[in-house]
Amino acid sequence: MEKLLLLGLILAVFTTGCIKDDILFDTQEPELRITNAPDTLEVNSNYTFEAMYLNNVGQSENVDLSWTSLDENTISIANDGFATALQLGSTTIRAEYDNGTEILTDEVSVQVGESTVINSNEFSGTVNTTSSYVLTGDFTIAENGDDLLLEFSSDYEADTGLPGLYVYLSNNPNSNADAYEIGAVQIFSGAHSYTIPNTSIFDYNYVLYYCKPFGVKVGHGEIIQ
Fold first, then answer.
1. Cβ(222)–Cβ(125) below 8 Å
2. Is 200:50 a contact under the CB 8 Å cutoff?
3. pTM to 2 decimals?
4. Residues 133, 162: contact at Cβ < 8 Å?
5. Which fold has domain 31-113?
6. What is the pLDDT of residues 168-220, one digit of tens each?
7. Residues 55, 57: Cα–Cα separation, whole Å
8. Are 59 and 52 in contact (CB under 8 A)?
9. What ranges do the domains of the chain cover?
């Protein structure tokens, strides 16, 4: 009995240290995001634009979108995102969705030129602790073929006392539900990297750290586009 009481006390101290006085809410603002915009479309070619709708808990939902081009003479686009580049120039492509509460939009500027150009993307961010434990570090996340490369810089540091520490990609900064589990943390200091296979750079908004056995979030960093 004494051992059980001691274990309970240790767990209580740990979880209190992790979350401090924070109250975590899973809800967030819904978001609409165009996920495959090219820099340039070849004139007289076709291209299908895609977008992702994230609901108020960061989950992706299949929804019916409206697509428009601000200059239909340069690029015409149907409601399913199927576009045709008609003449040299540039225009703005806009995706729109009415979720019943508000109308969400996202838009991109697209050129029409002699060839289609889709540049590789690289985003960045900084992980910060959300607990009493040390967890910090700058990172970049970049396209590498069909995969992603998540790289942490030399300023990365995580407390080795964090038990069962796992890293995730998520669209909700306060939940690892429906998140992509990258794996258990093996390196607690210095530069290192993870390869995330068959994943789009637009699929996730946050890097999360959780003490997986306890289900306690201990850090996160927003992926800045």
1. yes
2. no
3. 0.80
4. yes
5. Immunoglobulin-like (2.60.40)
6. 999 999 999 889 999 999 999 999 999 999 999 999 999 999 999 999 999 99
7. 6
8. no
9. 31-113, 120-222
Q: Token pair 């996920």 is at which residue?
A: 35
Helix and strand numbers (H, E) in the chain are 1, 19
SS3 129: strand
Give the number of other CB atoms < 10 A from CB of residue 173.
19
Q: Which two structure tokens, joined as six digits, stand for 221?
A: 């960093």
Counted residue by residue, the chain has a size of: 225
> Is the Cβ–Cβ distance between 110 and 37 less than 8 Å?
yes
pLDDT of residue 28: 84
pLDDT digits (tens, 9 = 90+) for 38-77: 999 999 999 999 999 999 988 889 999 999 999 999 999 9
For residues 41 and 85, is the Cβ–Cβ distance under 8 A?
A: yes
User: 120-222 adopts what CATH topology?
Assistant: Immunoglobulin-like (2.60.40)
